[in-house]
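Onboarding guide, step 5: your first structure request.
Type a short instruction followed by the sequence, for example:

Predict the 3D structure of this protein.
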Amino acid sequence: MKAILTMNDDIFGEKFSEEQFNNVEISNISINDSEFNNTNMSNSTIKNVQFDKVTFTKCDLSNVKFIDCSFRNVTFNNCKLLGTNIISSRLTQVNILESLCRYLNLVELKIKKSNINNCDLTESSFYNLELNKFDMQDSNLTGSEFFHTSLKGIDLSTCKISGIKITPDVLKGAKVNMIQAVELVELLGVEIVD
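The system replies with structure tokens like these:
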């Protein structure tokens, strides 16, 4: 199977299970209507790849660099995305579910009709993202950074946000619960007194 990915051939309707694709370079292909189960793709570089109707289940995508990729109708379920970088890419109808995403770096992305649910995003970075119909629930954002990424209309009320690094312009219009509001006010330098 490794030869298919390194030969730069398009992939359609394939099912991969317990494969080892770590430390590979994949570029200029389309992967459509395919499933990856319990597959290790860690430490790989994936450039200019179009993913359409692809499911990743229990895959290790740690330290993968996705650059100039397109993700459409893609699900990451119970995956490891530790230190993964997704850069200059488009995500449409992408679901990241119950995944370990610590140190995830999302940079220069257009994200539409997508959600992150029940994920650990501790110390992750969100830089210059365009979010449209984006939802995040029950996720751990402890110590994460948001810069040049408007959270207007995004409901963070079910997420952990302790130690989040954020600026007022990014936070404007976000939805938070009362406990989070107190923490964010303190983060912005406002002192609360009785």
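Each response can be followed by summary notes, for example: The mean pLDDT is 93.
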